[in-house]
Amino acid sequence: MMMKKWTGVLMLMLIVVNAGAQSALRKMPKGFTAKEVGVIVTQRFLATPHPNFGSPKPPGDITYPEVCAWLGALRFAAVADSKLAVRLKERFEPLFTTEQRLLPKKDHVDHNVFGTVPLQLYVQTKEPRYLDMGLPFAVSQWEAPTGGKESHLRWLKMGMTWQTRLWIDDMFMITAVQAQAYVATGDRKYIDRAAKEMVMYLDSIQRPNGLFYHAPDVPFFWGRGNGWMAAGMTELLRTLPESSQYRPRILEGYRKMMASLKQYQSADGMWRQLIDEPASWPETSCTGMFAYAMISGVKKGWLPAREYGDVARKAWLALVGYIDENGDVREVCEGTNKKNEKQYYLDRRRITGDMHGQAPILWCATALAEK
């Protein structure tokens, strides 16, 4: 009887400790709350014309950094500001008419992720035209393309998307659109195949320390590349049913990565352009992605709040300090291809207002604002 009594007391103490750690993500100083920050960055998004990723020319289509920011803004508005939700919907309307030429082709992970935006609009509005536009971007990832290569067919025979590359950013681009298709339709095939793909990536490319090289032949832990993996696992875990056979393996990979990231967080709360390189510069897009993963993990119970609550809070407070008076995020690494040269990563340009940096701020704001 005494043992049961003490077990109950210990459980109560643990609940209290976890609740205290959770509160670290609920009470923010003025100017740092999810609502304040999310509104500023969403308004900035609405005021920004469609950008052309990596080029000063007018965009030929909607590029994936804008998609990531748009998705984040839509989700934030759904939980925090209905007026912004209306304006975000209005921004999309020309894609049915005068801007239809900007719809991406369904031929690459960076293009297919566009489907997340109309699918999210369908979830919010239940208007079938959004589903009709968005769902083919998810469906086509598991359909053999016309004139496809032999490697495409090999991946499909293995149950993977023909767009598989084993690049670390794939695991956000693929999982985001498949998870969104599942949310929109309720059809388990979308989330199950994304989860199977994630497990294959984890088994293939996660390093013993829980992090990921930019590519197998490029042995550097690039910040944003790892951010895509962290955010991709988070997207899946937020959506994947508890009964999924793949969930334990994804949780294992996620927790292993979070434990490693916790060790590499700088004293100022940031993570760096090269995660394990102390001489590297603090970079905002990866910090935002890691913060999003940890905020979600603490609030959803995937991570112990007493261990990660303060880590996530510290990252958020640091990150908000990089937002300027226009609502633009500073110190964002420019678009980066792989290269087996450390100095290449250290010398990448640091951009202000790039959608790679705007997007994860909105993901964090949404995760913080959710009940």
Automatic annotation (TrEMBL):
Matching InterPro entries: 6-hairpin_glycosidase_sf (IPR008928), 6hp_glycosidase-like_sf (IPR012341), Glyco_hydro_88 (IPR010905), PolySaccharide_Degr_Enz (IPR052043)
First and last residue of the signal peptide: 1-21
PANTHER family tied to this protein: UNSATURATED RHAMNOGALACTURONAN HYDROLASE (EUROFUNG)
Keywords attached to this entry: Hydrolase, Signal
GO-annotated molecular function: hydrolase activity
Keyword tRNA processing annotated: no
Protein name according to UniProt: Glycoside hydrolase family 88 protein
Organism the protein comes from: Chitinophaga horti
Pfam families xref list: Glyco_hydro_88
